[in-house]
Amino acid sequence: MRFLAAVLLCASLAAAQTTQDLLNFLHDLPNSPVDVRTQPQQLQSLLRPLQTASPDDVRTILTTIRPFTREGAAVNVQHAAVSVVLFIALTREDGATLIADHLDVLEACLNFTRIQLDEGFIVMASYLRPAAPPEVVPMLLRLADRPDITDTRKANALGIALQLNQQSVRLRRPDALDQILQRITSYINERHSASSKILLLDAIPQTRNRGPVSPRMIDILASALIHREPAVRARAVHNLAQLGPDEVHKQSAMIERLRTQDPSSEVRAEADLALRLTTSQQLQH
Questions:
Q1: Residues near 142 by Cβ (< 8 Å), separated by ≥ 6?
Q2: Where are the domains of the chain?
């Protein structure tokens, strides 16, 4: 997280350099004594002009760092490549469009074994503007499949993939939903932390901002009503209520059972609240 914060910090630094200065720096870096890991200030100041540079200038920079992403490249230049990609993605309104033209660079950065980019990539994917390229969704799925990331980051990767998929469907990637939901279902049923499972359940109602909620997403919430962990059951009830009275009504028998019989006071309280809110909303209509 410190690495990501350092990249973002440079967006607020005053600098008079141009993208040509950055280009010169990157050209010289493989043979330079400057270590951007321990001496990041120069690179940080040189990145700032990328915020307002022309798209062609930015594409030139991304092409320049392509050799930095090859297997066997020095970790110093790999760090520089990651800094450039994250800065463009997180600070430019057209970051998604520019990154879409250089997805090989993005994925190579994600696969660096000596740099933990997983958290930065997950944040970047959710902030790409105007919308993440559809190819980012399978990248997130591959990241979630890696054995070396934490439960929380794995869940975040899946949750953001689910939200981005609402855009991806419109961009002719309907196959992605099957892959995402299969992984989410497996994840919730496996031995991961309850808090990370809750992150995934929370992602489902959040997809409303990007398009209609798939019935299969609602099925995941319904299945979680009988999960072995009380916190997961409680969150499933809560998120069904977030989707509206119709979804609660469809599961009313199960939720009523939870309200009266569940051993967890948290689950009983969530079930009671969901049923009361649903009744109230139905009376209003």
A1: 110
A2: 1-128, 134-214, 225-285
DSSP 240: H
- Check if the beta carbon of residue 84 is closer than 8 Å to that of residue 62: yes
**Residue 95 near residue 89, CB atoms below 8 Å:** yes
- In angstroms, what CA-CA distances link 124 with 140, 156, 240, 262? 11, 12, 28, 40
> Which spans in the chain are helix H?
2-9, 19-28, 41-47, 55-64, 75-91, 95-100, 103-110, 118-127, 136-145, 151-170, 175-189, 194-206, 215-224, 230-242, 245-250, 252-261, 265-284
pTM (2 decimals)?
Answer: 0.74
CB 111 within 8 A of CB 71: no
pLDDT tens-digit series, residues 60-95: 999 999 999 887 888 889 889 988 988 898 888 898
**Cα 76 from chain centroid?**
26
The residue written with tokens 């350092």 in the block is 6
Q: For the chain, what's the residue count?
A: 285
Half-sphere exposure of 172 (CA within 13 A, CB side): 0
Give the C-alpha separation, 147 to 102, whole Å. 26
19-58 pLDDT, tens digit each? 889 999 999 999 999 999 888 888 988 998 898 899 999 9
Distance of alpha carbon 242 from alpha carbon 273, whole angstroms: 11
What is the token pair recorded at 114? 């000596």
Contacts of 215 (CB under 8 A, 6+ apart): none
CA atoms lying within 13 Å on the CB side of residue 160: 29
Residue that has been written with the tokens 């079930």 in this structure: 271
